Haloacid dehalogenase-like hydrolase (Pseudonocardia broussonetiae), 620 residues
Amino acid sequence: MAEEQLLTSWRDAPAKQAIVAFVRRVVGEDGTAAVPVEDRVAVFDNDGTLWCEKPMPIQLDFVIRRLAEMAAATPELRDQQPWKAVSANDLAWFGTLMTDHYAGDDTRVRELLRGILAAYDGISVEEFEQRSNSFIRGTRHPSLGRSYVECAYAPMVELLDYLGANGFTTYIVSGGGRDFMRPISRDMYGIPRERVIGSSSTFTYTSDGHHGTITHQPAADYVDDGPEKPVRIWNRTGRRPILAGGNSNGDVAMLEFTQHPDTPTLRLLVLHDDADREFAYTSGAEQALVRADKDDWTVASMKDDWTTVF
Amino acid sequence: MAEEQLLTSWRDAPAKQAIVAFVRRVVGEDGTAAVPVEDRVAVFDNDGTLWCEKPMPIQLDFVIRRLAEMAAATPELRDQQPWKAVSANDLAWFGTLMTDHYAGDDTRVRELLRGILAAYDGISVEEFEQRSNSFIRGTRHPSLGRSYVECAYAPMVELLDYLGANGFTTYIVSGGGRDFMRPISRDMYGIPRERVIGSSSTFTYTSDGHHGTITHQPAADYVDDGPEKPVRIWNRTGRRPILAGGNSNGDVAMLEFTQHPDTPTLRLLVLHDDADREFAYTSGAEQALVRADKDDWTVASMKDDWTTVF
């Protein structure tokens, strides 16, 4: 019993067949030796892989609202980016920022990062958690007619459950903020907060002779994207995964790292090709798609492989 | 059934009584509401808390042997620290280094750190793991008549088991190297590698079009000691622990952080007062002992509370 009935939103098509064949092999149902449970590590990108990232990453909406508050409170900020774009309601400034990034120009990424870091400077980790939690649960997606907390892809949540039922330990490995996702990761994905890996600012601990406080500092610790993803996976788990799921160029290193000389592996790429039910785009996934074709990664088409998206 | 029979090496004295009363309260056996399983996070320092750290931290022996290899291969190194001390067999240079550190002078700590970082520059994480694993399993403690892999304190291993049996998730939070402890943490403590937190050098990921490699870089990522311990616990777990165990000044911040407004907590300090069976010292634990007395932390005397040490 490999619990395939959990994959109800997956059509009986090549992607599902590859997933099921892989899991059967891992648990030894195909007659080969089972992979030890402790080695069954599966890692998933978040934005665009587990939940929707269009028209903009959900965390960017969170940040823009905070930047707007800051610009309202401190008018001088409106002369500099990213507060200038927020004040002018210039969403294109944000919308094309990742296009620049993928083209190798990180000027605006750095300006945005500076804004994000300033936005939470000095906030305690508990207060950040409250803000993130209220935002994700209390804000509606601009076009999908649902709250952000309902924007997880149902087939991917089923896949996480299916892997868990087969002895896998699942991790989120997000380019977005680790602490942004933690308050909702269990409710949305069944993944506990200690298994969320993601970008982080630096923190400082201040003793008070009582319980102490950890606060955000205005400097990035690391950005968990591209070649940093395998490093962060190693730091957290001490293992190479045997399954990785992603959807963009920032996931290529993580998927490449998911390789063993003598253990089966699965690399899964979510393809956004469903303009009716979600969005259709390959911008930012060009290298990932080339690699998927070359190395025989499994591609999951939202349109063809999923009976439902949400 | 709170599994108290697991604590066979603990005398029926105040430390054991405090531990048992705390765990009974956490699981709700005293009639109060149980603490949710996901909040039962327990963190333990490693050197001097879970295994022996005298006459020198075990990882220091590992490093010194590597530095000696380097000095033999590259004679110029013998003119600079820490290779100079190693070549002159000047163990006092290392032995008094932490005394300087606790007195606020980190000159030699920095020199040693530079040596450690150079010692593993460019080594893959897999190769480092092999070296560490062979060393800990294959090297004998200089005076205790046992291999390093047998230098864990039996009462503390029992405590880890007892906590696990009561729904706790246990973590090692070591000032020493995370990747140094990982290959033996399950065999020695029953703690899987993903629950080892410790100091780390920075890593870089190199793509090779196949499986990629993570290698050590000659720069520290962070040193997991003092106020950095709560930060690293937060980064890994996203929670405040409810139990912390330590033995030195470097653990004070972590023990202080183990405090909740409405959840029971236990702070445990291992006191090295048993020159016959292990070692007797309070150097490096002065502030911790003051704080234990002031804040009513539980002190475990190796001499009075433990029937066996190893």
Residues 4-51+145-305 of chain B form a domain with the Rossmann fold fold (CATH 3.40.50.1000). Chain B is about 40% helix and 15% strand. Chain B touches chain A through 38 residues (CB under 8 Å). The two ends of chain B are 26 Å apart (CA to CA).
